[in-house]
Design brief:
The protein is elongated, with a radius of gyration of 30 Å. It is α/β, with parallel strands linked by helices and 561 residues long. The protein is 63% helix and 7% strand. Strand 6, helix 21 and strand 7 form a beta-alpha-beta unit.
Length: 561
């Protein structure tokens, strides 16, 4: 019989349309409009902070947001550019240019689609939480540091990409503060902070942009203040969806060499996109009482990232803030996400001139508040009271994200998390050699008892998983000199055994048999037994010497005396 393989691709849009009605459409319509309004300043700010421009931010929110809503696995997920990608995008553009960014985004999209096809959606959820908190906090600090030039109006044209060099540059130019720009930035932050206190419906970032743009226009027109930089001073204003174009390779590079160079960052984009979108979908599930399809969500995210670079867009993923805004305003189907992209499209087509009047210090204020909300400082504070290994992983990932980049941070963080996890398992797994008497515990189902062992018998008890770290410890203990002619390896608490464990157990058995000793395996569960059988260990000791209980093992030892 041939193995059956099917792609788990079931977009939520098509299943929700089967029972769709006018009542739900009216809710989705209002939610879509509100989320579209919320997304305007964020899309523009993320595009500019990433090193591209306002048009690219809006285009990403429109195209990627539409594809994620139509082909995604969540009913309420809102997709688009997010703050988490700013650091990566900026670094790629610095090193490989805009063409390199487009190729890396397409590669990341392909990786996401493959992850969905091979049903890896559930695996992503097992990313250690300290790593997620660490790189999210690191990204927040990095975003904050990138906004100082615009917040203080320093006018630096070539800000260093490196975190430390960036701050050194800021301090060298501290005498060039533009106090008008600084005032605009601070007022923007205050508006964002205090808006929720008098209105839960109006997005603070949007209100800040509207108010400060109007104030800056009045200052220029009636007070002659022209020193506040606007988007229009630095970027070409949006005039519509850019034409389809094939990404260009960096000069002197072939497609293959470029892909080789970009594979690590493409993988980082894919992993970050997968983690952020699936975490957002999980949070949304808890609020609306639904269950998203993680594999379909990954495929939808992947398709969005494959398409959007051909229109000049940047990496996109599910955005938790916009998703929650959608839910809180009544959105319950992907139609709300589609409507939100229509709102953004209207802004891009008809309000491009107004976008150019937005002051850069105001956008800096918006992004500073984004970084504050991303930082998760309360979570970091509470995690500092947990185990030292979790704290080590968290702060290592955070510092590497800030000082180096997210690719290195995730790679080192994962390796460190795995190593510390293995150490924790090793500490919880004990191996003991027992002679004369064996204490048998019935785990509360009867009185414990002591079994007298035959004089020629000793028991090697493994209490926990038998993997490579513990296997080496077992090998060291097995070398101890002993007069016993029968060795019982008690494995009742061995839940799994890996290749190193099998190898060391095989060496132990072979050495024992060579010295004329008999080996009995006791308490072997079904899964471990299959591993022992496949490796040939059952054949080495004989099936009659592989038993499921210590009573039978001791009885067998008496027979062999």
């Amino acid at each position: 019989m041939k193995p059956h393989f099917s792609i788990d691709f079931r977009p939520k849009l098509f299943s929700t349309l089967k029972s769709y009605d006018k009542s739900q459409f009216s809710k989705d319509f209002m939610a879509g409009i509100i989320v579209g309004v919320v997304a305007i300043p964020l899309a523009i700010a993320f595009g500019i902070a990433s090193g591209v421009g306002p048009t690219e931010g809006l285009v990403t929110a429109i195209i990627a947001g539409f594809i994620i809503s139509v082909f995604g696995g969540s009913k309420v997920q809102i997709g688009g550019p997010t703050g988490a990608f700013i650091v990566i995008i900026y670094g790629i553009i610095q090193q490989f240019g805009v063409g390199g960014l487009a190729i890396a985004t397409i590669m990341a999209g392909i990786i996401l689609v493959l992850m969905g096809i091979f049903r890896l959606g559930s695996v992503i959820k097992f990313m250690p939480y300290p790593i997620i908190v660490g790189f999210t906090g690191g990204i927040a600090i990095t975003i904050f540091s990138t906004q100082m030039n615009d917040l203080f109006g320093l006018g630096i044209t070539d800000v260093p990409a490196n975190f430390i060099d960036k701050w050194v540059c800021y301090f060298h130019n501290i005498g060039n503060i533009n106090w008008w720009a600084f005032a605009v930035g601070i007022l923007s932050i205050l508006i964002i902070i205090y808006t929720p206190k008098f209105s839960k419906k109006i997005p603070g970032s949007l209100l800040a942009i509207v108010v400060m743009t109007l104030i800056c226009w009045l200052l220029e027109r009636f007070a002659g203040v022209t020193s506040i930089t606007t988007i229009g001073d630095l970027y070409q204003l949006p005039k519509g969806i850019p034409a389809w174009s094939v990404p260009t390779l960096p000069e002197g590079e072939t497609l293959f060499s470029t892909m080789q160079s970009l594979l690590p960052v493409a993988f980082t984009i894919a992993m970050l996109g997968a983690i952020e979108s699936l975490l957002s979908a999980m949070v949304a599930d808890g609020v609306i009482g639904d269950r998203h399809n993680s594999n379909t969500e990954l495929i939808g995210q992947g398709l969005a990232n494959i398409v959007v670079p051909f229109f000049g867009g940047i990496p996109a993923t599910g955005a938790i803030a916009r998703t929650m805004a959608n839910i809180n305003n009544g959105g319950r189907t992907p139609i709300a996400g589609v409507i939100h992209t229509a709102v953004l499209l209207l802004v891009l087509l008809f309000l491009g001139g107004l976008v150019g009047a937005i002051p850069m210090p105001c956008l800096a204020g918006v992004l500073i508040m984004v970084s504050y909300n991303m930082s998760g400082w309360r979570t970091i504070r509470s995690m500092c009271r947990q185990s030292r290994s979790d704290i080590t992983v968290l702060f290592t990932t955070l510092l590497l994200t800030v000082i180096f980049d997210l690719t290195i941070a995730i790679e080192v963080g994962l390796v460190l998390a795995v190593v510390l996890f293995m150490r924790r398992i090793m500490e919880n797994t004990s191996i003991s050699i027992i002679k004369d008497e064996l204490e048998v515990h019935h785990d509360g189902e009867g009185d414990d008892e002591r079994l007298v062992l035959p004089k020629s018998t000793e028991v090697y008890e493994i209490d926990g998983p038998f993997f490579f770290g513990v296997a080496n410890k077992f090998e060291e203990m097995a070398r101890t000199r002993s007069k016993a002619t029968i060795r019982i390896v008690r494995m009742r608490k061995v839940s799994f055994i890996d290749a190193t464990g099998l190898h060391n157990l095989e060496i132990f058995i072979a050495a024992s048999l060579e010295n004329g000793r008999k080996v009995i395996l006791s308490g072997v569960n079904e899964q471990v037994y299959q591993s022992l059988e496949r490796s040939g260990i059952v054949a080495m000791v004989g099936k009659e010497n592989v038993l499921d209980h210590i009573y039978k093992a001791i009885a067998r030892a008496k027979e062999l005396e």
